[in-house]
């Protein structure tokens, strides 16, 4: 089987994932998963799609991720892996959809508006 690639986005993070049969190794930006994401929670987030279809040790994953923070990057990788697993085998789709891993989370930071302190917060009103 050849290498399957997929794209995942979250906030301002973009992850390109390359999945191929292997021993379950995950490389993120030329570093091991444990080195790139020291937090156990983020490591679990990245592996969530593989765990949902019980393919943890069957695929090697190589990731190029850019932009955003660590949580946004982890969730972008999760979406990309889920999309790659569906393109490998369409029978994975119901299990991933049930876990909510096939949906792109479109929430972004609202931009700052003119005349405001932040996006919605106004400057403090002074009566006198």
Question: Secondary structure elements and their pairing?
Answer:
Layout lengths: L3 E7 L2 E9 L4 E3 L2 E2 H4 L3 H13 L6 E8 L3 H19 L4 H6 L30
Parallel strand pairs: 3-5
Antiparallel strand pairs: 1-2, 2-5, 3-4
Helix pairs in contact: 2-3
Structural class: alpha+beta
Multimeric state: single chain
Question: How is the main sheet built?
Answer: 5 strands, mixed
End-to-end CA span: 74 Å
The low-confidence runs, each spanning 5 or more residues with pLDDT under 50, are none
Radius of gyration: 18 Å
CATH architecture: 2-Layer Sandwich
What is the overall pLDDT average?
94
How many structural domains does the protein architecture include?
Answer: 1
> H/E order of the elements?
EEEEHHEHH
**What is the CATH topology classification name?**
Ribosomal Protein S5, domain 2
Strand order of the biggest β-sheet: 1-2-5-3-4
Can you identify the CATH class?
Alpha Beta
Q: Counting H and I runs of at least 4 residues, what is the number of helices?
A: 4
Spatial shape: elongated
Strand element count = 5
């Amino acid at each position: 089987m050849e290498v399957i690639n997929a794209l995942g986005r979250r906030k301002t993070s973009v992850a390109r994932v390359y999945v191929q049969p292997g021993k379950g190794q995950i490389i993120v930006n030329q570093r091991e998963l444990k080195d790139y994401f020291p937090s156990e929670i983020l490591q679990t987030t990245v592996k969530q799609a593989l765990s949902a279809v019980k393919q943890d040790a069957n695929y090697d994953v190589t990731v190029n991720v850019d932009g955003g923070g660590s949580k946004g990057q982890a969730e972008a990788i999760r979406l990309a892996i889920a999309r790659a697993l569906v393109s490998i085998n369409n029978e994975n789709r119901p299990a991933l959809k049930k876990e909510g891993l096939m949906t792109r989370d479109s929430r972004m930071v609202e931009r700052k508006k003119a005349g405001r302190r932040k996006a919605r917060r106004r400057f403090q009103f002074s009566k006198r």
